[in-house]
Amino acid sequence: MASSNSSPAWKALQAHHSRVAPAHMRTLFEEDPERFSRFSLKHGDLLLDYSKNRVTAETMSLLADLARAADVEGWRRRMFAGERINTSEDRAALHVALRNRSGRPMAVDGADVMPAVEAVLSRMRAFADELGGGAWKGATGTPITDVVNIGIGGSHLGPAMVVEALTPYRKPGLGVHFVSNVDGTHMVETLKGLEAATTLFIVVSKTFTTVETVANAKTARAWLAGALGEAAVGRHFAAVTAEAGAAAAFGVEAEHVFELWDWVGGRTSLWSAAGLSIAVAVGMDRFEELLDGAHAMDEHFLSAPLEANMPVVLALLGVWYIDFFGAGCHAVVPYDQYLRRLPAHLQQLDMESNGKSVTRDGAPAARATAPVVFGAPGTDGQHAFFQLLHQGTRLIPADFIAAAETHNPVDGHHALLLANFFAQSAALMTGGSAMEAAPLAPHKALAGNRPSNSILVRRFDARTLGMLIALYEHKVFVQGVIWGINSFDQWGVELGKELAGTILPAIEDAQPARGHDSSTDGLINHFKALRAGPP
Ligand code: F6P
């Protein structure tokens, strides 16, 4: 049961906040020369420096008490035990089984899921090897040169992010592309330059009903069949889904259908066959290294004491700013161009998991929940939204992420990138007094005391990337537990889907739209007038 606002742990933090909030981090650093080592954690090659936060040792202790009061350890046990913690859908959330490298069983409803997980992994390996080795021949007997992942949300964002992040490890000779948006432009632009005879589509959809994915799959099918005939579909489509029947009805051969399970949520599915495009892009060995990294973070999450537990510390710091400082946003800035899609993945992971206002029991949430997550690669973000981070009226905690080693050692660039990585969190923390004469002074003053976490790794390879993604998965999970919400359903996206379904006929109907709110009717009718061309 989540601790309520009035629980002793929340009350103690509220009182503590009144005392510690006015403290400036400059002072905290001046008072404790060991602050960096005292407020940082290491796990393998990953360092989490959380010293540039508006916390003291007492703060962290009281936050850990809050985690205990919310039974974080109990919910962690339930998740790893395959209990149905996705309460509104009566499902387990056992994505940790997908990367369970321990050899220990992991069960849902008492049945060990590992044999099925291992079976899918070996089928993924065979599939990736066949494609990568040119042994997969299309309908015309030609090897496949391009693979197109068709999916959206978790069936797109995670795989696309990982494929981009692991660009340095790409297998030669295979193009891997992603289509997610139902805007025809996405499919049209992707198909430009592709040949039907050498293109394979992977349709990734747990439900196989997501409108965007089904529409894109049908368009791809028409393109393929139009070029090679209906009989060619079977050689040019694979599917990853929990609905094998729907995939078969679409024309995917059973041997090219990969199973997804209902105990895997979309936003934590990249470790499953939903990550097939990753295995195709970088090879199954790299994919398994990704799993190894995530498993290493799982082991840390399971075993480290709360006070020294990276996901728990990140989660608690987020709660500290959201619920005690009123922060509404959280910035993620990877100082690594290959990680440019990370913020988008974390948006779904965080905001679709915890962007809720009722607790697991259906009661109104007692406090603010998920922040608006946004971000961009550093240093680009510095020339886009950092002005607000430094001088805006809002407190926006930021996570800065970087690697000591670059995959592309161009003279002087990495040092410059890392100098900015180090400088930005320092500037946010210390601020700066204007050296200007009076008139400009207020405009140039930086108050500082703006918190950030710094995550520094040796190099972004598959294992380290797996650790990083799992770190954020568990952070989001812990925050959901503290807020008492179910982080594994997403009922909020259903109404929009239903409305789109009812509005579609109004768009296609020659008659003026009516019966919706006046804005929707007005917009639809204006759209029709514009579509009809100039008067
Ligand atoms: O955004 C809603 C959602 O259900 C996500 O949770 C999911 O990742 C995405 O749509 C795609 O769902 P599916 O894999 O079933 O097509």
What key phrases describe this protein's structure?
535 residues, alpha/beta, Rossmann fold, Phosphoglucose isomerase, C-terminal domain, 3 domains, six-stranded mixed sheet, five-stranded parallel sheet, 13 strands, 46% helix, 11% strand, binds 6-O-phosphono-beta-D-fructofuranose
Write structural notes for this entry.
- The chain has 21 helices and 13 strands.
- Helix 7 (157-165) runs parallel beside helix 12 (276-282) and helix 14 crosses helix 19.
- The chain starts with 7 loop residues before the first helix and ends with a helix.
- With 535 residues, the protein is of the alpha/beta class.
- The model has no long low-confidence stretch (mean pLDDT 96).
- The chain has 3 domains: 8-69 and 304-433 and 443-483, Glucose-6-phosphate isomerase like protein, domain 1 (Rossmann fold), CATH 3.40.50; 95-287, 3-Layer(aba) Sandwich (Rossmann fold); 491-532, Phosphoglucose isomerase, C-terminal domain (Orthogonal Bundle).
- Strand 3 (107-108) and strand 4 (111-112) form a beta hairpin.
- The protein is globular and about 75 Å long.
- The strands form 3 sheets. A 6-stranded mixed beta sheet has the order 1-2-13-12-10-11, with helices on both faces.
- It binds 6-O-phosphono-beta-D-fructofuranose.
- 6-O-phosphono-beta-D-fructofuranose is lined by residues 152-155, 205-207, 210, 213, 266-267, 352, 490, 493.
